[in-house]
């Protein structure tokens, strides 16, 4: 996918199609104009640029240097003012972000608890932790792996490991253990017969958005976060 991030008919086409729905979900809670956002697992910068076009101050990070190179190249072509750096660049970042995004990322992370705990140090009090991921159900195995990877071949085979999918209730508990407050989830699905291919739905058996917030006061919660964010080797 490294050379195909911006091919709207290539392996990343679903991510291009998802941009409008993601924007719509975020706008339910705040205006994007002027919001300071870190797009974690940004890949080639598809959603980062969509956020920038909405007036947000965007930074993107990914562990793949080749993806970041393509993100920077396309941002230069689009005259988009976005900071793209490897995670280590943000380990000592001075100014906190108002929003941390994990869009289609958590299902690829090995040490999920430590990953979220580390990145939360960069979120300002009252800030939003928002993402989208895949539920671990029988339905998701057939839709996200059998159908999307092996039959329709929307994404390369082997992209997903079903055992890394996380159920909403599990993610909710994990976020609470990290000191986050609130929980909101929203299902969404692919629609073959609609012009907008991805749409909100009641079901969360496969894809779902989630949202929590960091408390406005971090008092008595400092022990929840690692003092050295570089301890975690994953995103």
From TrEMBL:
Entry annotated with the keyword Transferase: yes
One GO MF term: polyprenyldihydroxybenzoate methyltransferase activity
GO-annotated biological processes: methylation
UniProt xrefs under CDD domains: AdoMet_MTases
Record keywords, A-Z: Methyltransferase, S-adenosyl-L-methionine, Transferase, Ubiquinone, Ubiquinone biosynthesis
Keyword field contains Mitochondrion: no
InterPro entries: SAM-dependent_MTases_sf (IPR029063), UbiG_MeTrfase (IPR010233)
Protein name, per record: Ubiquinone biosynthesis O-methyltransferase
